[in-house]
Amino acid sequence: MTKVLIIGGGFAGCISAEMLHAKGYTDITLVERAPVLGGGCRTYTYGGHPYTLGPRHFLTRREEVFEFLNRSCPMRRYDQGHEFLTYIERDQAFYHFPIHRDEVDDMPDAEQIRRELAEAPGAEGARNLEEYWVFSVGPTLYDKFVDGYSRKMWNIESNTELTDFGFTPKGVALKTGPKAAWTEAISGFPHALDGYNSYFEIATRHAKVHLDTTIEDYDIANYRVKIAGEWHTYDLIISTISPEIILKDAYGPLRWAGRDFLKLVLPVEKILPDDIYFLYYANAEPFTRVVEYKKFYHYDSPTSLIGIEVPSTRNKLYPYPTKADQALHRRYIEALPKNVFSIGRNGSYRYLDVALTIEQCMDLFKDL
Ligand SMILES: Cc1cc2nc3c(=O)[nH]c(=O)nc-3n(C[C@H](O)[C@H](O)[C@H](O)COP(=O)(O)OP(=O)(O)OC[C@H]3O[C@@H](n4cnc5c(N)ncnc54)[C@H](O)[C@@H]3O)c2cc1C
């Protein structure tokens, strides 16, 4: 019988447990460091309000990916898509993000921006994030919407340091048409007030789950890990944590950006206008994003909870988009023996959202 070890009980670990069981694997052990499953997507409560550490709303273009989750975690679908605003202090105005062409005409420096847009050469040939944006939308829009936000997000002096970008945050530099961020995607969130939590229990019900458990040592070349002073050997290891941990920093540290989350309850029924799901803050303030959780969980209360995200180095949440960091990650992956897979957001060192994590597991386990 194949002995399977899954390291980490976030979405990637839980999906792995579910899919491997469905493929006939019966001896599955899942080790989770925290006292609960769900990782970043776990719903907690504060002041009676449900929240996750970030929005964690679900977006996919693939119906079967939505259905995969919807089967065990009934999901609400949003028909209109989500709209996000950015506050630009120098204009004293809120604008949509992604930057919307129609709103350029309302900006105090509209004439200058229109000239820069007309002259912008296009992103092809850009060598870093700064060039990508300046070549796409010109220096003024870059300066207002992207420069400060990105530098505080990544804690860097200049966006020229970001060399592996190949994307804009919402897939488009300057939007036309509807103001919603993702008009093509299926967008949703669980109906339940505890969000995705029930999924984590359902997905792992056939696995031996060890919560609050720390792996003390790794001997990945020999498929062994040490827990509570004893070595355990497996045939198949699915790791959803950073590969630098399971390979004991063999090639040096990968760089990560993190987040601190501040919670604030306000004595109002709602904070943001109906269509707006959250706010970006592109200015000098230390925070990046403000989320109103009621928008996702849909419940009535005379008070409201907002979450404020502050860039930090205290946790590993965002892999650095540089060619050097991506190359270092590849080195770690190439060092993994057969039948050890490094998946999920940290394991892949990629900006995977929930839907992409499901897709990654579907691809991996289809042939296993
Ligand atoms: C701020 C923020 C906002 C986000 N918003 C969205 C969103 O709106 N929509 C969306 O689809 N996605 C969003 N995401 C992405 C989403 O959170 C991830 O796709 C998802 O969490 C990936 O699951 P995972 O299992 O790979 O990682 P995680 O959720 O990080 O789970 C990893 C698990 O491994 C455990 N672990 C860590 N180290 C060890 C160890 N040494 N031993 C054992 N266990 C360990 C952790 O405790 C955790 O439970 C967001 C991410 C962030 C950081």
Topology:
Elements: E1 3-7, H1 11-22, E2 27-31, E3 44-46, E4 49-51, E5 58-60, H2 63-72, E6 75-78, E7 83-88, E8 93-97, E9 99-100, H3 101-104, H4 110-119, H5 129-137, H6 139-154, E10 174-175, E11 186-190, H7 197-203, E12 208-210, E13 217-219, E14 224-227, E15 230-233, E16 236-239, H8 243-246, E17 256-266, E18 276-281, E19 289-292, H9 294-297, E20 304-312, E21 318-319, H10 323-334, E22 340-342, H11 344-348, H12 354-366
Parallel strand pairs: 1-2, 1-16, 2-12, 7-18, 9-10, 16-22
Antiparallel strand pairs: 3-4, 5-11, 6-11, 7-8, 13-14, 14-15, 17-20, 17-21, 18-19, 19-20
The structure holds flavin-adenine dinucleotide.
Flavin-adenine dinucleotide (FAD) binds at residues 7-13, 31-34, 39-41, 54-58, 215, 240-241, 245, 259, 317, 344-346, 352-355, 357.
Keywords:
368 residues, alpha/beta, Rossmann fold, 2 domains, 7-stranded mixed beta sheet, 5-stranded parallel beta sheet, binds flavin-adenine dinucleotide, UDP-galactopyranose mutase activity, flavin adenine dinucleotide binding, FAD/NAD-bd_sf
Brief account:
This is UDP-galactopyranose mutase. This protein is 29% helix and 26% strand.
Word description of this protein:
The protein is an alpha/beta fold and 368 residues long. It has two domains: 3-42 and 196-253 and 320-366, 3-Layer(aba) Sandwich (Rossmann fold); 83-184 and 257-312. Helix content is 29%, strand content 26%. The protein has helices at residues 11-22, 63-72, 101-104, 110-119, 129-137, 139-154, 197-203, 243-246, 294-297, 323-334, 344-348, 354-366, and strands spanning 3-7, 27-31, 44-46, 49-51, 58-60, 75-78, 83-88, 93-97, 99-100, 174-175, 186-190, 208-210, 217-219, 224-227, 230-233, 236-239, 256-266, 276-281, 289-292, 304-312, 318-319, 340-342. It has a seven-stranded mixed beta sheet. The protein has a five-stranded parallel beta sheet with strand order 12-2-1-16-22. The mean pLDDT is 94. Bound molecules: flavin-adenine dinucleotide (FAD). Flavin-adenine dinucleotide binds at residues 7-13, 31-34, 39-41, 54-58, 215, 240-241, 245, 259, 317, 344-346, 352-355, 357.
